[in-house]
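Quick log. Single chain, no ligands specified.
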Amino acid sequence: MTSPHKKALHGRSFLSIADVSPEEFELILETARVQKKRRFRRSLRGKNFALLFEKPSLRTKVSFSVGITQLGGHGVYLGQNEVGLGQRESIADVARTLSRYVQGIVARVFAHQSLIELAEHAKVPVINALSDAEHPCQALADFLTIQEHKKAIRDLRIAYIGDGNNIAASLAQGAVMLGAHFVIASPKGYELPGAIVRTARGFSDTTGGSVSKANSPAEAVRGADVVYTDVWTSMGDKASKKRTNVFRGYQVTLKLMALAKKDAIFMHDLPAHRGEEVVDEVIDGPQSVVFDQAENRLHAQRALLHLVLGSRTIQ
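-> predicted structure:
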């Protein structure tokens, strides 16, 4: 019998990690694990998807395209020059038009508000493939990877070093939803947005997870099960000497990793700016699972597509 969580996910947009309940989040991860271990049904047969990308991509474009194809669907890639959201044509008109052609929209945009408008006017589900506010599909892959290496997520200490950006926002919310303790060390002025912290803490009473700020990278990493970092300058932002100077003390080195637990894993969503936020010895070292994360983008997103737009069973 189909569970109520499977039914509830069907036909819904996914713009934020907080758009799903902790139970639904765990269902997505469970589905990804099942599909990764054995063959999956072509549950998207005959369905078409618009891959609407304002930003260039390697992992996101390929993983969504392959996942849709594996499930029997077809993806149509649309770059910024072909659509021009809010410039060449209004976002509402793009949403209404695409809804006549496709059964789902996967959008990678600069402004999160663009996703909100797409979802408001589209008659089909919209999936956030990255915005300036969140990267929820990356978080799905990240927690799938953590499960594979640590078995259970509950009560883990996840240390995030660097900018409180879209990656950190999705990770913080996801961690608390799954009962983990998210600790972030960021320079002053680059902290997690207050709204994200409040949303994450809203899950803590039921899951036992937490989110907190450390005064330094060393404080955050000490005793951590997972050490995570991201680029200092996000895609589309202009690099500056000032920003580089601000983040200089937030590089993940072997010395910093030594403060974590001996079996701690190192994570990065990629692409990495080697020599800036992380040194080669760490990202290429035995604790690094960054390419497991990259692979799991495919498995996590395929599970999400299956549950939102495919049949209502795991396999």
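Residues 5 and 93 are 32 Å apart (CA to CA).
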